[in-house]
Amino acid sequence: MSMKYKIVFDTNTLFIYPGNDPLVDLFSSNMLDSVGFIKKHALSDKIILSIPEVVIEEKKQQIVRQAMDNIEKIVSGFKVLSQLNDHFDLSKIQDECDLEYSKIIREKLLQKLNSDNVEIIKLSAINPEELMDRAIRGIKPFNNNKKDNGCKRDDGIKDTLIWLSLLEDAKNNYNSCEYIFCTNNTTQFNKEVIEEFKKAFNKELIIIKGIDELKEFLDEKFELKLGIKKIYDEIKENISKNAGDLILQFNEMYFKKTGYNQHLRQMISDSFDYLRIWQNQSDESAKELVAMNYRSLNFESITEGIQDHFEVIINLVLKPIYKQENEKNQAIESSWASSRFTTLSSQGFNDYILNKDKTFRISIDYDFMNKQFKISDFY
Q1: Are 140 and 197 in contact (CB under 8 A)?
Q2: Taking the model in full, what pTM does it have?
Q3: Which residue has the higher pLDDT, 154 or 241?
Q4: What Å distances lie between residue 11 and 54, 256, 343, CA to CA?
């Protein structure tokens, strides 16, 4: 019997950032990409895709939580009705939605996984003493330092449950499967877990970061001769090199969605370090958003489309900069008009408020033949 490769997905490789439809986003850019790649290149008899049950439960709760947050906003808008009518009890509606939605989401997730022949690794009975021992001793994926990337020592219970599920599954299948663990969390799933796996089964555990790296591995392992790594590297290099064009496109789309001050936008149309001046249209703050400072971008996934087009998902990190409430628009206009590229510190840094970084998930249509790209949407 030929050896198969069993690919086990961690949570962070399936769902990075919420989009318009969390149920679709759970699979669309990553799981469906993997399923489609395997089918397209006739690897179904060589590959088993699998997800630990813990991951399913976590994603279900995230989706439910997002839905309940939206319901909460609706409920808050109807509080006046409950005050006028004692029979208008919105708390019951929330409770019923929570229970019913949770059940429906789980069913739909399982149906989708079943239709794509994705195996679910059940969470077998966990020995509480073993779990406690791993936590106390800081055995990975528990943190083995007092602080590890800002996490406390007892963090890592979810990752440990995923890991114990994988180990239990390997006990029954290690003679017929090579295991690939697809995770972005290589801090917790590091060489220590690789050594534990090797000691238990006398074979290597392959840890791969992200779907793109997984496809590169499969391309090389099964000699598909697609040149995926070279193609992906070229796409990433071209987008990174033309980050200025990317930012301009992003702001054009952002302005259309949120509204903007045309005069201020025109004044800094060539600026890269301090990206656009616009009015903040969200409920987050009544302060005026005067700039978005470029921080970084990273690539989430690249999916092959048709006619040499690729869908590229990136995460663009920006730092919002707000004007102090006692400042006037004229002062800002004159300061920006005098020098488009002057740092805010030279304009009187105390006049501005720096907020936490914001990450925008951006979908890009990349034309490989013409080396051009266009933003399709952002969230």
Answers
A1: no
A2: 0.73
A3: 241
A4: 9, 33, 39
